[in-house]
Amino acid sequence: MGLAVSVSATVVPAATAAPPAGSATHHATQTAIDTLKTSHGAPGAGAVVRDGDDMWSVSSGTRAINQNLPFGADHKVKVGSLTKTFTAAVVMQLVAEQKVDLNASVETYLPGVVQGNGYDGNSINVRQLLNHTSGIYDYLEAKQANLLDFLIVQQNRTHTLAELASWGLSKPPYFAPGAGYHYSGTNYMLLGMIIEKATGTTYGQAVNSRIVTPLGLTNTYLPTPGDPTLPPGHVRGHLDLGFFSIDVTDRVEPSIGLSGGGLVTSGADATRFFQALMAGEVVPSAQLTEMLTPTNAPGSTAPNYGLGVDRFTLPCGGEAWGHYGIWPGYQTIAAATADGRAAFVEVNNLGVNDIDAMAGSGSGGGVNRSATLVAALCDKS
User: Fold this and answer.
1) pTM for the whole thing?
2) Which terminus of the chain has fewer CB atoms gathered within 10 Å of its CB, N or C?
3) For residues 128 and 177, is the Cβ–Cβ distance under 8 A?
4) Which residues contact 184 (CB under 8 A, 6 or more apart)?
Protein backbone atom coordinates (compact mmCIF):
# COMPACT_ATOMS: atom_id res chain seq x y z
CA MET A 1 0.00 0.00 0.00
CA GLY A 2 1.21 3.53 -0.72
CA LEU A 3 2.17 6.01 1.96
CA ALA A 4 -0.02 9.08 2.06
CA VAL A 5 2.20 12.17 2.25
CA SER A 6 1.39 15.71 3.24
CA VAL A 7 3.65 18.75 3.48
CA SER A 8 2.48 21.88 5.23
CA ALA A 9 3.49 24.84 7.32
CA THR A 10 1.31 26.81 9.73
CA VAL A 11 1.92 29.89 11.85
CA VAL A 12 -0.17 30.69 14.92
CA PRO A 13 -0.05 32.83 18.04
CA ALA A 14 1.10 30.53 20.83
CA ALA A 15 -2.21 30.48 22.69
CA THR A 16 -4.58 30.15 19.73
CA ALA A 17 -5.69 27.47 17.29
CA ALA A 18 -3.85 26.99 14.01
CA PRO A 19 -5.12 28.79 10.91
CA PRO A 20 -5.18 27.01 7.54
CA ALA A 21 -1.83 25.87 6.21
CA GLY A 22 0.05 28.20 3.93
CA SER A 23 0.05 31.41 5.98
CA ALA A 24 3.86 31.23 6.03
CA THR A 25 6.43 29.25 4.10
CA HIS A 26 9.46 28.57 6.34
CA HIS A 27 11.33 27.06 3.39
CA ALA A 28 14.54 26.36 5.32
CA THR A 29 12.78 24.35 8.00
CA GLN A 30 10.54 22.58 5.49
CA THR A 31 13.59 21.51 3.49
CA ALA A 32 15.38 20.33 6.64
CA ILE A 33 12.34 18.34 7.81
CA ASP A 34 11.86 16.77 4.37
CA THR A 35 15.54 15.75 4.37
CA LEU A 36 15.30 14.36 7.90
CA LYS A 37 12.28 12.25 6.96
CA THR A 38 13.94 10.91 3.82
CA SER A 39 17.26 10.25 5.55
CA HIS A 40 15.59 8.08 8.17
CA GLY A 41 13.20 6.40 5.74
CA ALA A 42 10.47 7.51 8.12
CA PRO A 43 6.73 7.81 7.55
CA GLY A 44 7.03 11.44 8.61
CA ALA A 45 8.74 14.21 10.51
CA GLY A 46 7.71 17.49 12.02
CA ALA A 47 8.95 20.63 13.73
CA VAL A 48 7.35 23.11 16.10
CA VAL A 49 8.98 26.50 16.62
CA ARG A 50 8.30 29.37 19.01
CA ASP A 51 9.62 32.88 18.52
CA GLY A 52 8.50 34.89 21.51
CA ASP A 53 4.71 34.68 21.60
CA ASP A 54 4.36 33.22 18.10
CA MET A 55 4.36 29.50 17.32
CA TRP A 56 4.48 27.75 13.96
CA SER A 57 4.84 24.19 12.76
CA VAL A 58 6.09 22.32 9.72
CA SER A 59 5.15 18.78 8.67
CA SER A 60 6.48 16.27 6.16
CA GLY A 61 4.86 12.93 5.46
CA THR A 62 2.43 11.43 7.92
CA ARG A 63 2.27 10.64 11.62
CA ALA A 64 0.51 7.33 10.89
CA ILE A 65 1.27 4.96 8.01
CA ASN A 66 -1.33 4.80 5.22
CA GLN A 67 -3.14 7.88 6.53
CA ASN A 68 -2.84 11.53 5.51
CA LEU A 69 -2.18 12.90 9.00
CA PRO A 70 0.25 15.83 9.21
CA PHE A 71 2.26 16.47 12.36
CA GLY A 72 0.88 19.23 14.57
CA ALA A 73 1.99 21.21 17.60
CA ASP A 74 -0.26 19.35 20.06
CA HIS A 75 0.30 15.78 18.89
CA LYS A 76 1.72 13.65 21.67
CA VAL A 77 4.99 11.77 21.24
CA LYS A 78 7.23 9.61 23.41
CA VAL A 79 10.36 11.72 23.74
CA GLY A 80 12.87 9.48 25.49
CA SER A 81 15.83 11.38 26.88
CA LEU A 82 14.25 14.82 26.53
CA THR A 83 12.92 13.69 29.90
CA LYS A 84 16.39 14.22 31.36
CA THR A 85 16.08 18.02 31.15
CA PHE A 86 12.79 17.90 33.06
CA THR A 87 14.48 15.73 35.69
CA ALA A 88 17.50 18.02 35.90
CA ALA A 89 15.22 21.05 36.28
CA VAL A 90 13.43 19.48 39.25
CA VAL A 91 16.76 18.63 40.86
CA MET A 92 17.94 22.22 40.39
CA GLN A 93 14.73 23.52 41.97
CA LEU A 94 15.52 21.32 44.97
CA VAL A 95 19.07 22.71 44.99
CA ALA A 96 17.64 26.24 45.11
CA GLU A 97 15.41 25.15 48.01
CA GLN A 98 18.48 23.70 49.77
CA LYS A 99 16.92 20.26 49.80
CA VAL A 100 19.66 18.86 47.56
CA ASP A 101 23.34 19.82 47.35
CA LEU A 102 25.08 19.39 43.99
CA ASN A 103 28.35 18.57 45.69
CA ALA A 104 26.90 16.16 48.25
CA SER A 105 27.53 12.47 47.75
CA VAL A 106 24.94 10.10 46.35
CA GLU A 107 25.36 8.16 49.60
CA THR A 108 23.92 11.17 51.46
CA TYR A 109 20.54 10.72 49.77
CA LEU A 110 20.56 7.04 48.82
CA PRO A 111 22.51 5.21 51.53
CA GLY A 112 23.72 1.79 50.45
CA VAL A 113 22.29 2.01 46.92
CA VAL A 114 25.55 2.74 45.07
CA GLN A 115 27.92 0.37 46.80
CA GLY A 116 29.96 -2.63 45.68
CA ASN A 117 31.02 -3.90 42.26
CA GLY A 118 33.58 -1.08 42.05
CA TYR A 119 31.15 1.65 43.20
CA ASP A 120 31.22 3.84 46.28
CA GLY A 121 28.37 6.31 46.59
CA ASN A 122 30.52 8.39 48.93
CA SER A 123 32.81 9.22 46.00
CA ILE A 124 30.09 10.19 43.50
CA ASN A 125 28.23 13.47 43.86
CA VAL A 126 24.89 14.71 42.52
CA ARG A 127 26.57 16.98 39.96
CA GLN A 128 28.32 13.98 38.43
CA LEU A 129 25.00 12.21 37.97
CA LEU A 130 23.59 15.25 36.18
CA ASN A 131 26.54 15.69 33.80
CA HIS A 132 27.30 11.99 33.17
CA THR A 133 30.77 12.03 34.72
CA SER A 134 29.94 9.53 37.49
CA GLY A 135 31.31 6.55 35.58
CA ILE A 136 28.16 4.54 36.40
CA TYR A 137 27.25 1.97 33.74
CA ASP A 138 24.20 2.65 31.56
CA TYR A 139 21.27 0.43 32.50
CA LEU A 140 20.12 -0.20 28.92
CA GLU A 141 23.65 -0.91 27.76
CA ALA A 142 23.82 -3.49 30.54
CA LYS A 143 20.85 -5.29 28.98
CA GLN A 144 22.14 -5.30 25.40
CA ALA A 145 24.08 -8.52 26.01
CA ASN A 146 20.75 -10.31 26.49
CA LEU A 147 18.55 -8.69 23.86
CA LEU A 148 15.94 -11.46 23.97
CA ASP A 149 15.39 -10.87 27.68
CA PHE A 150 15.07 -7.13 27.13
CA LEU A 151 12.72 -7.34 24.14
CA ILE A 152 10.42 -10.03 25.55
CA VAL A 153 10.71 -10.57 29.29
CA GLN A 154 11.25 -6.97 30.38
CA GLN A 155 8.43 -5.66 28.15
CA ASN A 156 5.88 -7.86 29.89
CA ARG A 157 6.20 -6.38 33.37
CA THR A 158 6.56 -3.03 35.06
CA HIS A 159 9.73 -1.61 36.55
CA THR A 160 10.84 0.75 39.33
CA LEU A 161 13.58 3.35 39.48
CA ALA A 162 15.57 1.20 41.90
CA GLU A 163 15.34 -1.87 39.66
CA LEU A 164 16.45 0.01 36.54
CA ALA A 165 19.35 1.56 38.45
CA SER A 166 20.37 -1.90 39.63
CA TRP A 167 20.77 -3.07 36.02
CA GLY A 168 23.49 -0.47 35.49
CA LEU A 169 25.08 -1.01 38.89
CA SER A 170 25.39 -4.74 38.14
CA LYS A 171 28.18 -3.82 35.71
CA PRO A 172 31.50 -2.29 36.81
CA PRO A 173 32.04 1.46 36.30
CA TYR A 174 33.40 2.89 33.06
CA PHE A 175 35.93 5.00 34.98
CA ALA A 176 36.54 6.62 38.36
CA PRO A 177 34.09 9.43 39.28
CA GLY A 178 34.98 12.64 37.45
CA ALA A 179 37.65 10.97 35.27
CA GLY A 180 35.63 10.97 32.04
CA TYR A 181 32.23 11.28 30.38
CA HIS A 182 29.81 8.51 29.42
CA TYR A 183 26.13 9.16 28.79
CA SER A 184 24.27 6.89 31.21
CA GLY A 185 20.57 6.57 31.92
CA THR A 186 21.42 5.01 35.29
CA ASN A 187 22.51 8.45 36.48
CA TYR A 188 18.99 9.74 35.89
CA MET A 189 17.30 6.77 37.55
CA LEU A 190 19.31 7.63 40.66
CA LEU A 191 18.32 11.29 40.29
CA GLY A 192 14.68 10.21 40.12
CA MET A 193 15.19 8.34 43.37
CA ILE A 194 16.80 11.43 44.94
CA ILE A 195 13.83 13.55 43.82
CA GLU A 196 11.45 11.10 45.47
CA LYS A 197 13.52 11.09 48.66
CA ALA A 198 13.74 14.90 48.81
CA THR A 199 10.11 15.64 47.93
CA GLY A 200 8.29 12.74 49.56
CA THR A 201 6.32 12.27 46.32
CA THR A 202 6.70 10.07 43.26
CA TYR A 203 8.87 11.28 40.41
CA GLY A 204 5.81 11.78 38.20
CA GLN A 205 4.04 13.82 40.87
CA ALA A 206 7.11 16.01 41.32
CA VAL A 207 7.36 16.78 37.60
CA ASN A 208 3.64 17.44 37.41
CA SER A 209 3.46 19.79 40.39
CA ARG A 210 6.73 21.61 39.74
CA ILE A 211 6.79 21.93 35.93
CA VAL A 212 3.73 20.64 34.10
CA THR A 213 1.05 22.48 36.09
CA PRO A 214 2.87 25.81 36.57
CA LEU A 215 3.70 26.04 32.85
CA GLY A 216 0.26 24.84 31.70
CA LEU A 217 1.65 21.89 29.75
CA THR A 218 -1.50 20.07 28.66
CA ASN A 219 0.12 17.21 26.74
CA THR A 220 2.95 16.26 29.10
CA TYR A 221 2.78 13.35 31.52
CA LEU A 222 4.53 10.23 32.79
CA PRO A 223 2.56 7.21 31.52
CA THR A 224 1.10 4.72 33.96
CA PRO A 225 3.35 1.65 34.27
CA GLY A 226 1.84 -1.22 32.32
CA ASP A 227 -0.01 1.03 29.85
CA PRO A 228 2.03 1.77 26.70
CA THR A 229 -0.92 3.24 24.77
CA LEU A 230 -1.21 6.91 23.86
CA PRO A 231 -4.44 8.92 24.03
CA PRO A 232 -6.07 10.29 20.86
CA GLY A 233 -4.10 12.93 19.02
CA HIS A 234 -0.67 11.33 18.93
CA VAL A 235 2.17 10.37 16.60
CA ARG A 236 2.53 6.67 15.79
CA GLY A 237 6.05 5.28 16.29
CA HIS A 238 7.65 2.75 13.95
CA LEU A 239 10.64 0.42 14.13
CA ASP A 240 12.41 0.05 10.78
CA LEU A 241 13.88 -3.44 10.49
CA GLY A 242 15.33 -2.77 7.05
CA PHE A 243 13.02 -4.98 5.03
CA PHE A 244 9.80 -3.85 6.74
CA SER A 245 8.56 -1.44 9.38
CA ILE A 246 6.38 -2.25 12.39
CA ASP A 247 4.24 0.04 14.51
CA VAL A 248 5.58 -0.18 18.08
CA THR A 249 3.57 2.69 19.56
CA ASP A 250 1.68 0.46 21.97
CA ARG A 251 4.27 -2.29 22.46
CA VAL A 252 7.01 -0.87 24.70
CA GLU A 253 6.60 -0.92 28.48
CA PRO A 254 6.73 2.78 29.54
CA SER A 255 8.35 2.15 32.92
CA ILE A 256 11.55 1.21 31.08
CA GLY A 257 12.15 4.98 30.82
CA LEU A 258 10.86 6.78 33.94
CA SER A 259 13.09 9.71 35.02
CA GLY A 260 15.64 9.05 32.29
CA GLY A 261 13.35 8.75 29.29
CA GLY A 262 9.72 8.06 30.14
CA LEU A 263 7.82 11.29 29.44
CA VAL A 264 5.20 11.90 26.79
CA THR A 265 4.92 15.47 25.52
CA SER A 266 4.16 17.48 22.37
CA GLY A 267 5.96 20.08 20.29
CA ALA A 268 3.90 22.86 21.83
CA ASP A 269 4.67 21.70 25.36
CA ALA A 270 8.36 20.92 24.76
CA THR A 271 9.03 24.32 23.22
CA ARG A 272 7.11 26.03 26.02
CA PHE A 273 9.22 24.18 28.60
CA PHE A 274 12.59 24.94 27.03
CA GLN A 275 11.61 28.54 26.32
CA ALA A 276 10.55 28.96 29.97
CA LEU A 277 13.70 27.22 31.21
CA MET A 278 15.96 29.62 29.32
CA ALA A 279 13.86 32.59 30.48
CA GLY A 280 14.46 31.71 34.13
CA GLU A 281 10.84 30.71 34.76
CA VAL A 282 11.66 27.12 35.77
CA VAL A 283 14.80 27.36 37.89
CA PRO A 284 16.38 30.45 39.52
CA SER A 285 19.18 32.31 37.75
CA ALA A 286 22.02 30.86 39.84
CA GLN A 287 20.90 27.28 39.18
CA LEU A 288 20.28 27.98 35.48
CA THR A 289 23.86 29.24 35.20
CA GLU A 290 25.02 25.94 36.69
CA MET A 291 22.94 23.99 34.17
CA LEU A 292 24.39 25.94 31.24
CA THR A 293 28.04 25.54 32.24
CA PRO A 294 29.74 23.00 29.91
CA THR A 295 31.30 20.07 31.72
CA ASN A 296 34.18 19.59 29.26
CA ALA A 297 35.14 16.34 30.95
CA PRO A 298 38.38 14.57 30.00
CA GLY A 299 37.97 12.83 26.64
CA SER A 300 34.30 13.81 26.45
CA THR A 301 32.32 13.18 23.28
CA ALA A 302 29.94 15.92 24.44
CA PRO A 303 32.19 18.69 25.86
CA ASN A 304 29.34 21.23 25.83
CA TYR A 305 27.01 19.09 27.96
CA GLY A 306 26.03 20.86 31.18
CA LEU A 307 23.59 19.61 33.79
CA GLY A 308 20.83 17.86 31.84
CA VAL A 309 21.25 20.08 28.77
CA ASP A 310 23.58 20.27 25.78
CA ARG A 311 24.70 23.35 23.84
CA PHE A 312 24.03 23.82 20.12
CA THR A 313 25.89 26.50 18.17
CA LEU A 314 23.63 28.34 15.72
CA PRO A 315 24.90 29.19 12.21
CA CYS A 316 22.89 32.42 12.39
CA GLY A 317 24.77 33.43 15.55
CA GLY A 318 24.40 32.62 19.22
CA GLU A 319 23.60 29.32 20.86
CA ALA A 320 20.72 27.20 22.08
CA TRP A 321 20.47 24.73 24.95
CA GLY A 322 18.38 21.60 24.94
CA HIS A 323 18.41 17.82 24.67
CA TYR A 324 17.88 14.89 22.31
CA GLY A 325 15.71 11.86 22.81
CA ILE A 326 15.24 8.36 21.44
CA TRP A 327 12.44 5.92 22.23
CA PRO A 328 11.47 2.83 20.21
CA GLY A 329 9.65 4.30 17.21
CA TYR A 330 10.65 7.92 17.85
CA GLN A 331 13.58 10.34 17.62
CA THR A 332 13.31 13.88 18.96
CA ILE A 333 15.36 16.95 19.84
CA ALA A 334 14.44 20.30 21.40
CA ALA A 335 16.26 23.45 22.48
CA ALA A 336 15.78 27.15 23.16
CA THR A 337 17.79 30.35 23.05
CA ALA A 338 18.06 33.06 25.69
CA ASP A 339 16.16 35.50 23.44
CA GLY A 340 12.96 33.42 23.33
CA ARG A 341 13.31 31.12 20.33
CA ALA A 342 12.58 27.42 20.86
CA ALA A 343 12.25 24.43 18.52
CA PHE A 344 11.18 20.81 18.72
CA VAL A 345 11.94 18.27 15.98
CA GLU A 346 10.55 14.76 15.69
CA VAL A 347 10.76 11.81 13.31
CA ASN A 348 8.51 8.81 13.81
CA ASN A 349 10.75 5.84 13.26
CA LEU A 350 13.84 4.25 14.73
CA GLY A 351 16.05 2.20 12.44
CA VAL A 352 18.07 -0.86 13.34
CA ASN A 353 21.20 1.27 13.01
CA ASP A 354 19.80 3.69 15.59
CA ILE A 355 18.93 1.17 18.31
CA ASP A 356 22.39 1.30 19.89
CA ALA A 357 21.87 5.04 20.41
CA MET A 358 19.22 4.25 23.03
CA ALA A 359 22.02 3.08 25.31
CA GLY A 360 25.09 5.11 26.10
CA SER A 361 24.44 8.08 23.77
CA GLY A 362 21.77 10.49 22.67
CA SER A 363 22.47 10.48 18.96
CA GLY A 364 21.16 8.33 16.13
CA GLY A 365 21.61 7.56 12.45
CA GLY A 366 20.57 9.43 9.33
CA VAL A 367 20.89 13.19 9.09
CA ASN A 368 21.75 14.54 12.53
CA ARG A 369 18.64 15.90 14.23
CA SER A 370 20.67 18.81 15.58
CA ALA A 371 21.17 20.12 12.03
CA THR A 372 17.40 20.21 11.59
CA LEU A 373 16.98 21.83 14.99
CA VAL A 374 19.37 24.69 14.28
CA ALA A 375 17.80 25.22 10.86
CA ALA A 376 14.43 25.70 12.55
CA LEU A 377 15.85 28.01 15.21
CA CYS A 378 17.47 30.19 12.54
CA ASP A 379 14.45 30.27 10.21
CA LYS A 380 13.01 33.79 10.16
CA SER A 381 11.11 33.42 6.87
Assistant:
1) 0.91
2) N
3) yes
4) 132, 134, 136, 137, 138, 139, 141, 168, 174, 360
Angle among Cα 22, 4, 17 to the nearest 5 degrees reads 35
**For residues 329 and 76, is the Cβ–Cβ distance under 8 A?**
no
Q: How far is CA 168 from the centre of its chain?
A: 19
Question: Cβ(76)–Cβ(230) under 8 Å?
Answer: yes
Question: Which backbone phi and psi does 257 adopt, to 5 degrees?
Answer: -100, -55
Helix (H) or strand (E) holding 116: strand 115-116
Averaged in consecutive runs of 10 residues, what is the pLDDT profile of the chain (381 residues)? Answer: 37 37 74 94 96 97 93 97 98 98 98 98 98 96 71 78 97 97 97 98 98 98 96 93 86 94 98 98 98 93 95 96 95 97 96 61 59 96 80
Length in residues, the chain: 381
Please report the DSSP string for 327-358 in residue order: ETTEEEEEEE-TTSEEEEEEESEEETTTGGGG
